[in-house]
Amino acid sequence: MSAPLLAIEDVAVELPTPRGNLRAVDHVDLSLQAGRTLGIVGESGCGKTMLSRAVLQLLPKKAKLTGRVMFDGQDLVRLAPESLRRLRGRDLAVVFQDPMTSLNPVLTIGTQLMETIQEHLELDAPAAKARSIELLAAVGIPAPEQRLVQYPHQCSGGMRQRIAIAIALSCEPKLLIADEPTTALDVTIQAQILDLLAREQRRRHMAMIIITHDLGVVAGRADEVAVMYAGRVVERAPTQALFKRMHMPYTEALLAAIPKLDAAPHTPLPAISGRPPDPTRPLKGCSFAPRCNYAGRHCHAAKPVLTSAEMPDHVYACFHPIRMTEGMEA
Amino acid sequence: MMQLAVRPAPLLNVDNLVVEYGLGNKIVHAVSGVSLEVVRGETLGLVGESGCGKSTLGRAVLQLRRPKSGRVMFDGEDLTAMEGEALRRMRRRVQLIFQDPIASLNPRRRIGDIVAEPLIIAGIKDAAERKRRVHEVLSAVGLDPDLVANRLPHEFSGGQCQRICIARSLVLNPEFIVCDEPVSALDVSIRAQILNLLEEMKARFGLTLLFIAHDLAVVKAVSDRVAVMYLGRLCEVGPSEQLFAQPAHPYTALLLQAIPVPDPDVRPAESVAAGEPPSPIAPPSGCRFRTRCPRADQRCSAEIPELRQVAPGQFAACHHPLG
């Protein structure tokens, strides 16, 4: 296998709070090959957004980052601000959850698109405009020429997200990070936007990270899925393996807690009792142990590290993995 | 219009309800002639995308937003004709739970006082009696009254705040609760806890629910019947299982197709949902879904489809129903 496009190596993020240091990301390793899609799934506060901010080097000023973020052969953590600026928007693009706040409300859509294009590509104004129109058409915006002179408030939420995607795609990025790209959208619009992202990814052969709390969003669209809990990756596997034979009890519990369309009404849901631990008071043992049905005494005493058993690309952090082949039970 | 055989008399009967908002010199047609009924002990799920009028409908049921026309009958009495004291008395029997549990609790008041407030408004003067009721409902929703009563909302997580909101809605022993997106702001693991709690409370206190949500799977998990709304009108209503197995309205089918399924073997259908909902300021003529509907023809733009029975108990407002 060639060197990965992105390699997150032992990344930890700490934020000082009045209640003490908050460990938002707790020593995460992840890698992504060019042209592939990685889904990062977790509930609020699990550190998935902070991890993506660490990759983009867009962490809050007070945050303390350790580890390396290798992107296309360079360590983004140690890159000079000027080089970083050239990289972001060009090779490394992002789509945020709320398109209303990521677009500038007082600039026209055309200005915002052309600004990005001209900042990174050597195009004159007419060429940048032509490219903007092309991009808007590619993301499915009808009458793109007229849209160029409009402002974000004149577009619907779905349209705004399409525009944000057009800006992100404008310089043919090698990696697109989509942070909850459809959470603010209605379900029929969500399907359109996810289709659009998948189509453009295939066409441009770019790598993509989809960050979401919804396992359904990554199930049909990611090559690999990483599940995060309390700042750590607790399981990572090719999508099929993760959904069919997850080894981490949290993954199983999370999947079971989702209401299913094919279940009969009034079927009680297997809820996960309790809630995630306080991130300013890290637990000594496994962070999921207090809520886990399989936890033993050892789980409260020591932290399990990511290991693989059957397939090298399927790793999990658990002392009592589930759904293992006979004879391989820990 | 909607005759249902062998169903008991409804506890709630909404008849041809119209709710409109003024927006400058324009009119937002939020709810345009919706009729539905909920029988005692039943949960009716109400689904639709944002702006379809589902929340407005929920509020109009409680008379928090007065309808322009139409009637809301609750247990044989016309809420739309009620005012002042009579309406206040009726509201003891009909309660509301909101989407954002943190925003719906006053951050400066203690949990015990928040939950006791409806009792004070209802004129229960005996403090010991109020305390007893507050303890009862807080324990019922799985909180320890002695631990939580003196604390402030910011000390609780979203899921716990929603438990407190549910306790507050139960404290007057209501018969009917409108739940407006009660789990949309919650994480998956907490959502399941709250949905189970609502089911438990419904059984324990003999409640009837109008459950409003945009997530079809969530709605199905708790509802006996489901009503689907689009741009101010009902598209389809029917028993949950039947409606999900055999949707008759193309919009219901579209919604079902659009849901991302947490199973990698289910390939997402490409571009099932063309276009976006039109503005409720200028809704399309005839069937309001026709601008996005693959089956639409001339008749759909000329004639408003009425709800018609397509299967026992299942009604669809469509000129060209599926199946």
Describe it for me?
The complex is a heterodimer of chains A (330) and B (323). Chain A has 330 residues and is α/β, with parallel strands linked by helices. Chain A has 2 domains: 217 residues, P-loop containing nucleotide triphosphate hydrolases (Rossmann fold), CATH 3.40.50; 77 residues, no CATH class. Chain A contains 12 helices and 12 strands. In chain A, the strands form 2 sheets. In chain A, strands 6-7-8-3-9-10-12-11 form an 8-stranded mixed beta sheet, sandwiched between helices. In chain A, strands 2-1-4-5 form a 4-stranded antiparallel beta sheet. The longest helix of chain A has 18 residues. Chain A is globular. The mean pLDDT of chain A is 92. Chain B has 323 residues and is of the alpha/beta class. In chain B, 32% of the residues lie in helices and 24% in strands. Chain B contains 11 helices and 12 strands. An 8-stranded mixed beta sheet of chain B has the order 6-7-8-3-9-10-12-11, with helices on both faces. In chain B, strands 2-1-4-5 form a 4-stranded antiparallel beta sheet, covered by helices on one side. Chain B is globular. Chain B starts with 9 loop residues before the first strand and ends in a 7-residue tail after the last strand. At the A-B interface, helix 8, helix 9, helix 10 and helix 11 of A face helix 7, helix 8, helix 9 and helix 10 of B.
| Proportion of beta-strand residues of chain B | 15-25%
Largest sheet of chain B: 8 strands, mixed
Number of strands of chain A: 12
Task: Please report which band the strand proportion of chain A falls in: under 5%, 5-15%, 15-25%, 25-35%, 35-45% or over 45%.
Answer: 15-25%
Coarse shape of chain A: globular
What is the helical fraction of chain B, as a range of percent? 25-40%
CATH class of the largest domain in chain A equals Alpha Beta
The CATH topology name of the largest domain in chain A reads Rossmann fold
Cα-to-Cα separation, first versus last residue of chain A: 30 Å
N-to-C SSE series of chain A? EEEHEEHEHHHHHEHEHEEHHHEE
